[in-house]
Amino acid sequence: MARLAIVTGGTRGIGRAICEKLQADGFTVVANYAGNDAAAGQLKADTGIRCYKWDVGDHEATIAGCARVAEEVGPIDAVVNNAGITRDAVLHKMSYDDWHEVMRINLGGCFNMAKACFPGMRERGWGRIVNIGSINGQAGQYGQVNYAAAKSGIHGFTKALAQEGAKFGVTVNAIAPGYIDTDMVAAVPEPVLEKIIAKIPVGRLGHAEEIARGVAFLCSEDAGFITGSTMSINGGQHMY
Ligand code: NDP
């Protein structure tokens, strides 16, 4: 029987590419999303992938959402923690709410999904968790103390949970994308984006599919000896 993968924030951008690649690789895939019903409807229409709406930063909603997926589709074998937001501002202008929302969703979402899905993987003796970090969690970024802290936290979370899952056949890894051509990056002002691209050795933004291929490999049988690692996919921008 096909294994079941859930991709948070799976209806747009990198998440959607991950859903499509995992489906092509033989997983049954479900996507979670926050509120954009049109994007979810489009994914469902194009691929048949079922979409479930809840806020991954909300602990109770995440536990309930994953329980519903398990009941309606089956036990969750692979989790891709991809949902993420930005609330950029320099520290002296950043509100507590900007700090807290990014921590709650980007890092708290990983904890909430793991709480919901890791125990079952551990009991069944097989699981894959892939957390989407960021180059800006590795290198830091002006105007992003909240985002950089949350993404950096993902890397520590990954290494700690990997140690807990290892003897149960559950691998936990992270991918740190560089700048990828999605809605999130479209929000960056053009002059800033030009400066960013000038610093990418391969001379372009990445494509969502290039992240998806890395995720799919980490979710495969072939990657069973890889755990607690971070794969950087960034066009050579930051070598970590
Ligand atoms: P997008 O903004 O294009 O898509 C974000 C997705 O996350 C959407 O599906 C959105 O749902 C969902 N989402 C947002 N908040 C929540 C929430 N609280 N609960 C559930 N789902 C939520 O993002 P990208 O595709 O650009 O980024 C995906 C991931 O990759 C993020 O973690 C991001 O930080 C990371 N990343 C991106 C980079 C880039 O260059 N784009 C670089 C490095 C890392 P909805 O559509 O309903 O709003």
Give your account of this protein's structure.
With 240 residues, the chain is an alpha/beta fold. It has a single domain, classed as Rossmann fold. The chain is 49% helix and 15% strand. The chain is globular and about 50 Å long. The structure holds NADPH dihydro-nicotinamide-adenine-dinucleotide phosphate (NDP). NADPH dihydro-nicotinamide-adenine-dinucleotide phosphate binds at residues 8-9, 11-15, 32-36, 39, 55-57, 82-85, 105, 132, 134, 177, 179-180, 182-185.
Order of helices and strands: EHEHEHEHEHHEHHHE
At the first level of CATH, what is the class? Alpha Beta
The unreliable regions are none
Percent of residues in helices comes to 40-55%
Largest sheet report: 7 strands, parallel
CATH domain topology: Rossmann fold
Spatial sequence of strands, sheet with the most strands: 3-2-1-4-5-6-7
- What form results from the Cα inertia axes? globular
What number is the mean pLDDT?
Answer: 97
Task: Estimate what percentage of residues fall within beta strands.
Answer: 15-25%
Overall SS class: alpha/beta
Please give the CATH architecture. 3-Layer(aba) Sandwich
